[in-house]
Design brief:
mainly alpha, about 0% strand
Length: about 575
C-alpha cells in the first residue's frame, strides 16, 4: 500500500507539471491571437516576432518535457490477456527461489554409511555401485545448486533401492555361517578315525568285546556326523530365506521408473507450456515493434506536417505584414488556426508520450515475464537431467542387487550339491558300519542257534541216561536263550538305525540324481561286502572240511594197512590159536 500511494502521488505531480507546460503554451498562443486584433504598428510586429520565437521555444519544451512514465498502463494480467499466455507468474520459477536439495545430501550420507557397513564381504561386491551412486548424487547436487528446483520428491525415488541395498548387504555370508559347522565335522571325523584305529587293533588282537564297543562308538559318531552335515541344509535354508526377499527387486525398479517417468512428464509439460508462452511473447514483441515503428512514422509525419504548417504560417504572417491592411481578417483567422493547431499538436504529443510509456512498460513486463519463462525452461531441463541421473542410479543399484541375488543363488545351489556329496560320504560310512554290525550280529545269532541245537541234543542225551551233567546243559541252554534275546534286540535296534539313515538319505539321493552325479548306493555296497564276507567264510570252511576229509582218509588207509598186516601174520594158523 505505501508503494502504491507514492506512485499515485508522483503521477499526480507529473500531471500537474504537464498541465503547466500546456497552459503556458496555450496562454502564449492566446496572446498571439490577441495581438492579431491589436493596433498594427512596428512595435506590434516586433512583439509578435518575439512571441513567435518564444512560442517555438515553449513548443519544443512541451515536446521534450512532457512525460508519462509514472502512469501504470500495462501489467502482467493485460499481457496474459493480450498475448494469450497460459502460464501464470505463480506457476513459474523465480530468481529468488532457493533450491531444496537437503534430501539428496541425505542420500549421499546414507550411501557413505553403507560404504562403512560391517559386512565387509558384501561391501566388496557393492563398492562400485556405491561409488557410482555417490558420483551421480554429487552431479545431481551440483545441478540443483544452480537451479530453483525442489528435489524433495525426486530424493524419495531411490530410498527403496537404498533400503534393499542395505538389506542385501545384511544377508548372512553362508561360508561364514558354515565355519563352526565345518570345525565340528572335522572334530567328529577325527574321533571316527580314532575309533576305527582302536577297533582295527582290537580285531587284530582278538579283543572282540572292545571291537564291538568301538563299532557302537563309531556308529554313534557317524550319526552325529550325519546330523552335523544335515544341519548345513538348515543354515543354507536360512541364508536362502534372507536372499529370497530380493527376488522382486525388478518391481522396486519398475515403481521407481514409474515415479521418475511421471516427474519427467510433468517437467516436459511445464517446459512445453513455457516454450509456447515464449513463442507467443516473441510474436507479441515483433508485432509491438512493428506497431511502434508505424506509430513513430505517423507521429514524425504529423510533426513534419506541423513544422511545415508553422513555417508556412510564419511566412504567411510575414506576407500579411506586408499587406496588413488588406489581410487583417486573414491574419486573425491564421492566428486562430495557429492556436487550434498548437492545441491539437499538444494533444497529439500527449497521446504519443502516453503511447511510448505504454510501449516501454509493455517491453519491461514482457522482459520480466520472458526471464521467468526462460528460467523455468532452464530449471525444467535441469530437473529432467537430474531425474535421468537418479534413474541411472536406481537402475545400477537394482542391477547390482539382482546380480548379487543370482550369484548367491548359484553359490547356494553349488554349496547344496557339495553338501549332498559330503552327506553321501558320511552316510556311506555310517551305513556300511551299521551293515557290518548287522552282519556280525546275524552270524552271532546263527552260532547261538547252532549251539542251542547242540545243547538241546546234549540235554536230551543226558536226560535219557540220567546224566548229572543235565543241569549244566539246562543252565547253558537258558544262558544261550538270554544271550539270543539280547542279540536280537541289538540287531533290531541296528536295523532301525539303518532304515532311519536310509530314509534321511532320500532327499540327498534325489538331489544327486537330478544333478546327474553317478554313485554307487551304500546299500548295494553293504550287500556286496556281506556277500564277499560270506564267500570268504565259505572258502575257509571248505578248506577246513577238506583237511578233515584228508585226515579221515589217511586214518582209514592206516586201518586198512593194519588189518592187512594182521591178516598176513595169522594166515595158516588154526582158528583156536588165532583166537588165543
Amino acid at each position: 500500500m505505501p508503494d502504491e500511494s507514492t506512485g499515485l502521488e508522483a503521477a499526480r505531480k507529473q500531471k500537474i507539471h504537464n498541465l503547466k507546460l500546456k497552459t503556458a503554451c496555450l496562454e502564449n498562443e492566446e496572446f498571439v491571437t490577441d495581438l492579431h486584433v491589436s493596433d498594427w504598428s512596428e512595435t506590434q510586429k516586433q512583439k509578435l516576432q518575439a512571441a513567435h520565437e518564444k512560442g517555438s521555444e515553449l513548443l519544443a519544451s512541451v515536446e521534450t518535457g512532457t512525460k508519462w512514465n509514472l502512469t501504470a498502463a500495462y501489467d502482467i494480467q493485460k499481457l496474459m490477456r493480450v498475448c494469450g499466455l497460459e502460464m501464470s507468474v505463480r506457476e513459474l520459477y523465480k530468481p529468488d527461489d532457493k533450491p531444496q536439495f537437503m534430501e539428496v545430501v541425505g542420500l549421499k550420507k546414507t550411501l557413505n554409511e553403507l560404504k562403512q557397513h560391517r559386512n565387509k564381504t558384501r561391501i566388496v561386491s557393492f563398492t562400485p555401485t556405491i561409488d557410482n551412486g555417490l558420483t551421480k548424487l554429487e552431479k545431481v547436487e551440483d545441478e540443483l545448486r544452480r537451479s530453483q528446483l525442489d528435489a524433495t520428491d525426486l530424493a524419495q525415488v531411490p530410498v527403496a533401492v537404498l533400503k534393499n541395498l542395505e538389506e542385501c548387504m545384511n544377508v548372512t555370508v553362508v561360508q561364514s555361517a558354515l565355519m563352526g559347522n565345518e570345525e565340528q565335522i572335522k572334530g567328529q571325523l577325527a574321533l571316527i578315525e580314532k575309533a576305527k584305529e582302536i577297533r582295527n587293533v582290537a580285531l587284530a588282537d582278538g579283543e572282540m568285546a572292545i571291537a564291538e564297543e568301538q563299532f557302537y562308538i563309531k556308529a554313534q559318531l557317524l550319526e552325529r556326523l550325519v546330523d552335523l552335515v544335515a544341519d548345513k541344509f538348515r543354515i543354507i535354508g536360512q541364508t536362502d530365506d534372507e536372499n529370497k526377499m530380493f527376488a522382486k527387486i525388478h518391481e522396486v525398479q519398475k515403481k521407481a521408473f514409474q515415479e521418475t517417468s511421471a516427474m519427467k512428464d510433468a517437467k516436459r509439460r511445464l517446459k512445453q507450456r513455457c516454450e509456447e508462452d515464449l513463442k507467443h511473447l516473441h510474436d507479441a514483441i515483433q508485432k509491438a515493434d512493428l506497431e511502434d515503428a508505424e506509430a513513430m512514422k505517423r507521429f514524425m509525419g504529423q510533426k513534419d506536417k506541423s513544422e511545415k504548417f508553422i513555417r508556412e504560417n510564419v511566412e504567411k504572417q510575414d506576407e500579411c505584414w506586408r499587406k496588413i491592411q488588406e489581410q487583417e481578417r486573414m491574419l486573425q483567422k491564421l492566428g486562430t488556426e495557429r492556436f487550434e493547431e498548437v492545441k491539437k499538436r499538444i494533444e497529439e504529443n500527449d497521446r504519443e508520450e502516453k503511447r511510448k510509456v505504454e510501449y516501454q512498460q509493455f517491453l519491461d513486463v514482457v522482459g520480466q515475464h520472458k526471464k521467468l519463462l526462460e528460467l523455468s525452461v532452464y530449471n525444467c531441463d535441469l530437473a529432467i537431467r537430474s531425474i535421468g541421473i537418479i534413474e541411472e542410479l536406481v537402475s545400477e543399484g537394482c542391477t547390482a542387487i539382482k546380480a548379487r541375488y543370482d550369484k548367491t543363488n548359484q553359490e547356494l545351489a553349488d554349496l547344496r550339491l557339495q553338501v549332498h556329496q559330503e552327506y553321501l560320504e558320511a552316510f556311506r560310512r555310517l551305513y556300511k558300519t551299521l551293515g557290518q554290525l548287522v552282519y556280525k550280529k546275524e552270524k552271532r545269532l546263527e552260532d547261538i542257534d547252532r549251539n542251542l541245537r547242540t545243547t538241546h541234543i546234549q540235554l536230551e542225551f543226558a536226560i535219557e541216561t540220567l546224566d548229572p551233567n543235565a543241569k549244566k546243559h539246562s543252565d547253558t541252554k537258558k544262558e544261550l536263550y538270554k544271550l539270543r534275546s539280547q542279540i536280537e534286540e541289538e540287531l533290531e535296534m541296528l536295523k532301525d538305525k539303518m532304515a532311519q539313515a536310509l530314509e534321511m538319505f532320500g532327499p540327498t539321493e534325489d538331489a544327486l540324481h537330478q544333478a546327474g552325479i553317478e554313485f554307487v548306493h551304500p546299500a548295494e555296497e553293504v550287500e556286496e561286502n556281506n556277500l564277499g564276507r560270506r564267500s570268504k567264510i565259505v572258502e575257509y570252511r571248505a578248506h577246513l572240511a577238506k583237511q578233515e576229509e584228508v585226515k579221515i582218509a589217511a586214518e582209514r588207509e592206516e586201518l586198512k594197512r593194519s588189518k592187512t598186516i594182521q591178516g598176513q601174520q595169522h594166515r595158516g594158523k588154526p582158528v583156536q590159536q588165532i583166537t588165543n
